[in-house]
Design goal:
Elements lengths: L2 H9 L8 H6 L2 H23 L3 H12 L5 H9 L8 H24 L5 E4 L11 E9 L6 E10 L2 E9 L2 E2 L5 H32 L4
Antiparallel strand pairs: 1-2, 2-3, 3-4, 4-5
């Protein structure tokens, strides 16, 4: 997927900012829609106060956005059949490193936010027994075609959680599946864990480096 398009897609994670308690009480589409305005306003304020530095963005993500992501399930989807071959310790390490990778990607995309408009589509009211839904939205930006953005969400004991994001029908999580599978085939599960950890350390070093 084109880098600009992917960045626009990742910016939609901004919608996931309501408290975890609210996620238990509000319908998933209402949760995302109502939170969007608050998050965008917060990001604009961050830019005004701090120039949009990624350190500030990461802090907002950590406290307001990330609690509504099911990183364990996202990692299982990305690892696919190899997940069952991993030990519990390896599964925990994979989840930690994949989470760090996604968080850094979100932070970078968030830093480039400008004036995209997010419109959420109406959805059928969920029944008491419904545990999975897809919340549909469209991202609009002047001079570009609208981008369809769908959130796959699951109702858990902690409330509604996002476990995948699809842009134009392309899954954010499964885009990693082939490369992860190839790495595990060549170097095993520990090899993938090390590769992710190295990539995350490199990304952290780059984000801390002074801009010239």
């Amino acid at each position: 997927m084109h880098k600009t398009t992917m960045n626009s897609v990742l910016l939609l994670a901004l919608a996931l900012t309501a408290p975890v308690l609210a996620a238990q009480e509000i319908e998933p589409n209402v949760l995302l829609q109502s939170a969007t305005a608050d998050v965008i306003a917060a990001m604009k304020q961050e830019r005004g106060l701090h120039g949009g530095r990624q350190t500030q963005v990461a802090s907002v993500l950590e406290t307001r956005v990330l609690p509504l992501f099911d990183f364990s399930r996202m990692t299982q989807i990305a690892i696919a059949r190899n997940w069952r071959a991993a030990t519990p310790d390896q599964q925990a390490a994979l989840t930690t490193e994949f989470r760090a990778l996604l968080v850094r990607t979100y932070s970078m995309a968030l830093s480039s936010y400008r004036d995209q408009v997010i419109e959420f589509r109406n959805m059928q009211k969920t029944a008491p027994g419904d545990t999975e839904v897809t919340v549909k939205s469209v991202v609009k930006q002047s001079g570009t075609e609208p981008i369809a953005m769908n959130y796959d969400m699951e109702k858990t004991p902690a409330g509604w959680k996002v476990y995948d994001i699809k842009v134009g029908g392309i899954s954010l999580v499964t885009t990693y599946r082939d490369s992860f599978s190839d790495k595990i085939r060549d170097d095993g599960v520990d090899g993938l864990i090390k590769a992710l950890a190295d990539k995350n350390r490199l990304g952290e070093s780059s984000s801390r480096a002074p801009k010239t």
